[in-house]
Amino acid sequence: MADAKVIPFDDDRSRGSRGAGNRRRGSSAESAPVGDGPVGDVQPLPVRGAAAQDPAPGPDESAEPRSAVGDGGDQDGGDQDGGLERRVAAGLSFLRRRLTGDYEVDDFGYDAELTDQVLMSLLRPVYEKYFRVEVKGVENIPAEGGALIVANHSGTLPLDGLMMQVAVHDHHPADRHLRLLAADLVFVLPVVNELARKLGHTLACAEDAERLLAQGELVGVMPEGFKGIGKPFGERYKLQRFGRGGFVSTALRQGAPIVPCSIVGAEEIYPMIGNSKTLARLLGFPYFPLTPTFPWLGPLGAVPLPTKWTIQFGEPIPTDGYAPEAAEDPVLMFNLTDQVREQIQHTLYKLLVQRRSVFF
Could you give the CA distance from residue 284 to residue 38 in angstroms, rounded to a whole number? Predict the structure, then answer.
């Protein structure tokens, strides 16, 4: 595998559209952008259990429970059968569209239907049952329009970005979707590349970020990059350098607010006690982690520790009050970058003080 190359976030070099290679078309000549209309005809899941509840007894009725053999039992069974039939029909309809290619993706390869119905369903048990993520301040994320969420990065493997994406998807009152910016390495790995595109991820560069913000999308970036997820366990929760402030420049150009995000719990899932630079160089990775369980326990050592997570979104920092030329002011970019970094770091310390245990 070739050495991984990370394009700086503020690299403004021109590139051709990568979406054309990722776009699947249905029966129409051109797929409509995601968000212009309903993605498919999948029926909503029925609300079960309501029909099974018996009405409160009236003044002339007995308060004794109703017999299971009667109208109530038949109605409940009918609702369950109908609900099962609808779910089976919806599943078959979904499979038909996937097999025939009758579904839509945007220019970046984002597949909203597959993300909502399959990929989020796979990530949600890890989010809810394994890491037991607690979300705070989700109301600080704007209900509409472009916004840039800036978060700390940690954990040896970038699971924190995926958990942040589930947090926004499941908890934001406006049902917003988070589009993450990722490094080059993500898009050269087999399978990972396709899944990342389907989830709405794209390359961490200014051009893609500005396009998404201009379309009113919610964009997520972790400026620490490999320095954050690959740092030793002894430096946990100490933010690394935030690059050259490219994310601030992008937000200023689009007038998009910056929402700081602090994630606690990811640092301990793979305690990195060493780094085999020789293996990393041979494999083309930025680092090769050595943890108390990996690679000593083989595949079992790749299972993350079940830590308890907290994700907190801070108050947005507005950028629409600056002049257009402010995006080229290095002093302003440095000050805003430092403000975002300090806000995230302060919140991390506060959450760590409030945390009762790493695992509970």
Answer: 41
Cα–Cα distance list, 80 to 50, 53, 88, 95, 117 (Å): 11, 13, 12, 23, 21
The residue with greater pLDDT, 68 or 157, is 157
Question: Do the Cβ atoms of 308 and 267 come closer than 8 Å?
Answer: no
Query: What gap in Å lies between CA 336 and CA 257, rounded to an integer?
Result: 12
For residue 28, the model assigns a pLDDT of: 37
Inter-residue contact 46 to 82 (CB < 8 Å): yes
Nearest-CA neighbor of 181 among 151, 145, 141? 151
**The CA-based dihedral angle spanning residues 265, 340, 172, 256, taken in that order and rounded to the nearest 10 degrees:** -150
Q: List, in sequence order, every beta strand (DSSP E) within the chain.
A: 134-136, 147-151, 178-182, 202-203, 218-221, 258-264, 274-275, 289-290, 310-313
| CA–CA gap between residue 158 and residue 53 (Å, rounded) | 45
Q: How many helices (H) and strands (E) does the chain have?
A: 11, 9
Beta strands in 172-307 (DSSP E): 178-182, 202-203, 218-221, 258-264, 274-275, 289-290
Tokens of 44: 């909503």
Supply 232's token pair.
């030793």
Over residues 235-275, the pLDDT tens digits come to 999 999 897 788 999 999 999 999 999 999 999 999 999 99
pLDDT in tens, 291-328: 999 999 999 999 999 999 999 999 999 999 998 889 89
- Calpha distance 116→199 (Å, rounded): 9
Q: What would the two tokens of residue 225 be?
A: 């990059």
Contacts of 232 (CB under 8 A, 6+ apart): 272, 273, 275
Rounded to an integer, what distance in angstroms lies between the CA atom of residue 267 and that of residue 264? Answer: 7
Residue 77: what pLDDT? 53
